[in-house]
Design brief:
Strand order of the largest sheet: 1-2-3
Order of helices and strands: HHHHHHHHEEHEH
Largest sheet: 3 strands, mixed
Number of strands: 3
Number of helices: 10
Shape: elongated
């Protein structure tokens, strides 16, 4: 997923949310609707989230240093996780609190037409932002379904904007329904119910975002198709007999670490082995350009060891040495 595509969607969402936030707060000033206040805070939180994504994208482009030899690509994951926290605390919990207060102490809406007008205007703006996010995502989604794309995407920006815009549209519809019912029935409690539903929706979206960005922060392997391309590239030349085992890790959305043990001929010289490794690295980079860091270890393939399988104690996160409880 390109950084440019994600940036375009983030900027479009930021512009829409800033305009929408101003309109919602103006409508709240006239109507005193809790739905409008919750939606105003929601749009303000979304605007802050988009700024966080832009800052994360900028900081991730810094060059590697001796202290951080693999660069700063994961900054985008960190700021994506911060977005989920902001959405949960500022957006979701505030809306739940406001909804509870309005249900406990309902009051009649004033100048309700302000709320309806701003909500309709907001739905139009948010729809444009959502359409931009969909168009940018379709450039990278391929044959994946939308849930699969959100789950498997290695760049956090587009999934975050997609979920935020989707949540914003549903929230606007809930707010419009709450305000409309409050006006039709004269019962302000409907405004509070709409606000409460908005808060629950935002909390659920924030939890999904937190789970996905947490997985990226922990370190995810390359996708299945990417792994197959790397495996094919390694054994494509006559200098590598077979791939013994391999690990991949995303250092950032567009930076991949590849570590593999490859089988070479037992009678090759050190110079020939070195040339074989260099050639394999070139093939990997040609097949998967985001493979920036590649470590290939030469070895002699032994069938009896392959039958036993990999040593779990030699695998990061695998079984550790036994410690007696006596």
């Amino acid at each position: 997923m390109s950084a440019g595509g994600g940036t375009k969607a983030v900027v479009a969402a930021l512009a829409a949310n800033l305009g929408i936030a101003v309109g919602k707060f103006v409508a709240f000033a006239f109507t005193r609707s809790s739905s409008m206040l919750a939606e105003g805070v929601h749009s303000l939180a979304d605007s802050g989230n988009q700024i966080l994504l832009l800052v994360g994208g900028k900081r991730s482009q810094r060059d590697a240093t001796p202290e951080h030899p693999f660069g700063y690509g994961r900054e985008r994951y960190i700021y994506g996780f911060l977005v989920s926290i902001v959405l949960f605390s500022v957006g979701g919990m505030f809306a739940i609190y406001e909804g509870y207060e309005k249900i406990a102490h309902p009051h009649e809406l004033k100048s309700w037409y302000w709320a309806v007008g701003v909500l309709v205007f907001s739905i139009i703006l948010e729809s444009f932002s959502f359409r931009t996010a969909i168009q940018e995502s379709n450039l990278h989604r391929g044959a994946l379904t939308w849930p699969q794309f959100i789950r498997r995407a290695k760049s956090p920006e587009l999934p975050i904007v997609l979920l935020e815009d989707f949540g914003a549209l549903i929230g606007l519809i809930l707010a419009l329904g709450g305000v409309s019912l409050a006006v039709a029935t004269g019962e302000g409690v409907w405004d509070g119910i709409g606000t409460l539903c908005i808060g629950i929706l935002l909390v659920l979206i924030a939890i999904v975002l937190a789970m996905e960005t947490r997985s990226l922060l922990l370190g995810e392997a390359a996708g299945v198709e990417t792994v197959r391309e790397i495996e094919a590239a390694i054994v494509a030349g006559p200098d590598v007999e077979r791939l013994i085992h391999m690990r991949t890790l995303h250092l950032g959305p567009e930076e991949l670490l590849v570590a593999a043990k490859i089988a070479v001929r037992h009678d090759e010289t050190a110079a020939e082995v070195a040339r074989a490794i260099d050639a394999a690295e070139e093939r990997i980079r040609a097949a998967v350009p985001i493979a920036r860091v590649i470590y290939l270890e030469p070895d002699i393939y032994r069938a009896e060891e392959a039958v036993r399988g990999a040593d779990p104690e030699a695998t990061p996160g695998g079984k550790g040495p036994h410690v007696s409880g006596d």
